[in-house]
TrEMBL record:
Domain MalQ N-terminal beta-sandwich: 74-164
Keywords per UniProt: Carbohydrate metabolism, Glycosyltransferase, Transferase
Listed InterPro entries: GH (IPR017853), Glyco_hydro_77 (IPR003385), MalQ_N (IPR048458)
Species, as recorded: Cryobacterium breve
One GO molecular-function entry: 4-alpha-glucanotransferase activity
Top-level EC class as recorded in UniProt: transferase
The name this protein goes by in its record: 4-alpha-glucanotransferase
Catalytic reaction equation(s): Transfers a segment of a (1->4)-alpha-D-glucan to a new position in an acceptor, which may be glucose or a (1->4)-alpha-D-glucan
Highest taxon above the source species: Bacteria
Pfam family, one: Glyco_hydro_77
Family annotation (Gene3D superfamilies): Glycosidases
Protein family (similarity comment): Belongs to the disproportionating enzyme family.
Enzyme Commission number(s) from the entry: 2.4.1.25
């Protein structure tokens, strides 16, 4: 029901929602303004822990919104840009002496002075409270510090994060161009794979792309952890944890202890590998479960080999550095092997790794917990090897990891980080031109308030893990660091609303961790967004994303000179068919067959044809395709090459070459809005003849060479 803002209770509900960063209206992709339903607002407020069921509750919650900051000695967290003074409000009794100081990341102490301005008084629960302003000095260095305060016989502390005004790593890309391969790693196999692309394949892909073709980076799908044992979720964008990695990608033979297996044990592992190798040539369907089951059996065998003293020391050091987060993740893995996600044991309160269910099993499952910690150590080592291979191949950036928007409801992060997630909510996207029914990604969102209360620790730890062995990170739907589309569980994708986050904190921390890692950041800033967002990201040194088919101005393709410099530009994305399929209209046919169109298929085809015709006309204007009527007509491959040559005319510092386009694949990797209706994320890399393309063949692949040449010619 649409709310009447002239009605007092309705107006109060709208005011309460806005005070908590919950949008009460939004603008659709068609430019029309829409009001958010009252039921949606109440559900979102409930997830935020704010009572709004009755007029009395709404009034009480509005009052509490005003009083809550005054009840605190310090704010929950302070995030400031380097070189900028930060005003920190401190609340205490008017007659009290207030002391504020900082313990910096290096252990040094710094006193904080009170600002010589009048203080403010307020009455809280019948008692006077004074607000004094203390100023954090602008010379405080980048990093994670702790702000302390003492007054009225009580003490408080909070995280004080100093972030870079601008990510310095991107300055090196100004006036310079790199191109890189964009690949779905699981789909890219070699003759030595176990049916699924792995970390060793990643190193080889980077080596061939760098040494043979001159690529500067390789961008891969999220490598986040999934379920600890089969069956596993096929979507890399619906992980169990975003902090830890998927052991599915381990190359068993590269584990050092493999060399010390007994002849009998080695025979077992070799037999498993031999049974999996034929799957590398399977071009129709990827079988993660078979590959993972075989690898886990092999890894359990290798795990029994005693580690050398040096290797044991490195393992223990890794575990200590990862801390409680790794221990909790490994506990979840061990428990998940015993209890399915719907088992009643998971519902014991209080839930999570601090609850009685966890405590009762931590010691009992110690050996299995150690095994899962060991798997994460192996992932870390093999990723280090892969990133080192990119440097040796001459890549200036190396591996660019992809960060998914969220995690599964029944996964590790949802269990271990439940205190900073919003219950009863899922995230997604409202209807847009390409997904006209909207999207529900089945992921719980960060709770903005509780995440801030925690000092953004979980967010920081996640970024550090991903960036540990990386030259860059692509943030999927980076707009979600500004606002996320929250949908009450059980509602349709269109029945949600945007909830805002402290983007200054989230983007600042992202820039801080990337700068410390020497990595670049690419934000996937497609879809519906507020106009100022792209300018803000550019100001902070965060690259954007431009997809050829989406860049239009006044219903015509955007001229290449008008593209952004601080941007990764490519012809397509993993949510569209490879370019050969797109040119054939496969995206329309597929969505029509799945019932995902919001208008008649004839209208959709006509719109698609008009869009493609305009793009091809732009190619002809630039001399990238011959005039209409020229015989013979351009082949599909020549048209694909012309599209990539068009991207090379842009000033964008980064160009992305989809590996599927480089080998002539046509099949879609993922169709948004579906789960099992289409084999999303289960399509192996193959050529136009339907035969699997292995990494072994890429160095001499003529299509790959021709596409790279087209980019160089366009430049």
């Amino acid at each position: 029901m649409e709310l009447d803002p002239t009605d007092r209770p309705a107006a109060a509900l709208l005011e309460l929602a806005r005070s908590l960063g919950v949008d009460t209206t939004f603008t659709g992709w068609d430019g029309a303004a829409r009001s958010v339903e009252a039921s949606t607002l109440r559900a979102v407020l409930a997830a935020l822990g704010v009572a709004a069921g009755t007029p009395a509750e709404i009034d009480a919650s509005l009052t509490e919104q005003v009083l809550a900051p005054w009840r605190r000695l310090l704010p929950p967290v302070v995030v400031v840009r380097e070189g900028t003074a930060a005003d920190v409000p401190v609340h205490a009794h008017p007659d009290s002496t207030v002391r504020v100081w900082i313990i910096a990341e290096d252990g040094s102490r710094h006193d904080v002075s009170q600002q010589a301005t009048p203080t403010t008084l307020h009455t809280v629960d019948g008692l006077p409270v004074r607000e004094s302003t203390f100023v954090v000095h602008p010379r405080l260095p980048l990093g994670w510090h702790t702000l302390h305060a003492e007054a009225d016989g009580r003490e408080a502390d909070c995280a004080l994060v100093v972030t870079p005004p601008r990510l310095e790593t991107t300055r090196n890309l100004a006036g310079h161009r790199d191109w890189g391969v964009m690949a779905q790693l699981y789909s890219v196999r070699s003759s030595r794979s176990w049916g699924i692309g792995d970390f060793a394949d990643l190193a080889d892909l980077a080596t061939i792309s760098g040494t043979q073709y001159g690529a500067g980076f390789v961008l891969v799908n999220p490598l986040h952890a999934s379920e600890p044992c089969p069956p596993v979720e096929p979507s890399p964008y619906l992980p169990s944890s975003r902090r830890f990695f998927h052991p599915l990608y381990l190359r068993v033979e590269d584990v050092p202890e493999y060399a010390y297996l007994t002849p009998e044990a080695r025979a077992v592992v070799e037999s498993l590998a031999t049974r999996q190798h034929p799957a590398n040539l399977e071009a129709g369907h990827l079988d993660r479960d078979s590959a993972y089951a075989a690898k886990l059996t092999a890894l359990e065998t290798v795990h029994q080999v005693r580690r050398s003293a040096a290797r044991e020391h490195r393992f223990q050091t890794f575990c200590a550095e990862q801390g409680q987060g790794l221990a909790d993740f490994a506990l979840w893995c061990a428990l998940s092997e015993l209890f399915p996600s719907d088992a009643p044991e998971w519902s014991v309160e209080p839930r999570g790794p601090r609850g009685p269910f966890a405590a009762a099993n931590r010691e009992k499952l110690a050996d299995r917990i150690e095994f899962h910690c060991w798997l994460q150590w192996l992932c870390d080592q093999q990723l280090e090897t892969a990133q080192r291979a990119t440097a040796e191949a001459g890549m200036s950036i190396g591996i660019v990891h992809d960060l998914a928007v969220g995690v599964q409801f029944t996964g590790s992060d949802a269990w271990t980080l439940r205190d900073v997630l919003a219950p009863g909510m899922t995230v997604g996207a409202p209807p847009d031109m390409f997904n006209q029914q909207g999207q529900n990604w089945s992921q719980p969102p960060w709770h903005p308030g509780r995440l801030a209360e925690s000092g953004y620790a979980a967010y920081r730890d996640m970024l550090r893990s991903i960036l540990h062995h990386a030259g860059g990170i692509r943030v999927d739907h980076i707009l979600g660091l500004f606002r996320l589309w929250w949908i009450p569980v059980g509602a349709g994708p269109g029945e949600g609303t945007y909830v805002h986050y402290d983007h200054e904190a989230l983007i600042g921390i992202l820039a801080l961790e990337a700068q410390r890692a020497g990595a670049i950041v690419i934000g996937e800033d497609l879809g519906v967004f507020e106009p100022w967002v792209r300018d803000y990201l550019a100001e902070r040194g965060i690259f954007g994303t431009s997809i050829l088919w989406f860049e239009r101005e006044a219903d015509v393709p955007l001229a290449p000179e008008r593209y952004r410099q601080a941007c990764l530009t490519s012809v397509n994305t993993h949510d569209l068919p490879p370019t050969a399929g797109y040119l054939a209209g496969d995206h329309v046919a597929l969505r029509e067959s799945l019932g995902l169109l919001g208008r008649p298929v004839a209208e959709e085809r006509a719109a698609d044809l008009a869009e493609q015709s305009a793009m091809l006309a732009a190619l002809r204007e630039r001399g990238l395709l011959p005039p209409v009527g020229t015989e013979p007509a351009p082949t599909v491959q020549q048209t694909v090459e012309a599209l990539y040559a068009y991207t090379a005319l842009t000033p964008s510092s980064l160009l992305g070459v989809a590996l599927v386009d480089a080998v002539g694949e046509r099949r879609t990797q993922n169709q948004p809005g579906t789960t099992n209706e289409y084999p999303n994320w289960r399509v192996p890399l193959a050529g136009p003849d339907g035969v699997s393309v292995l990494i072994d063949d890429l160095a001499t692949n003529p299509r790959f060479a021709a596409l790279v040449e087209a980019i160089h010619t366009g430049s």
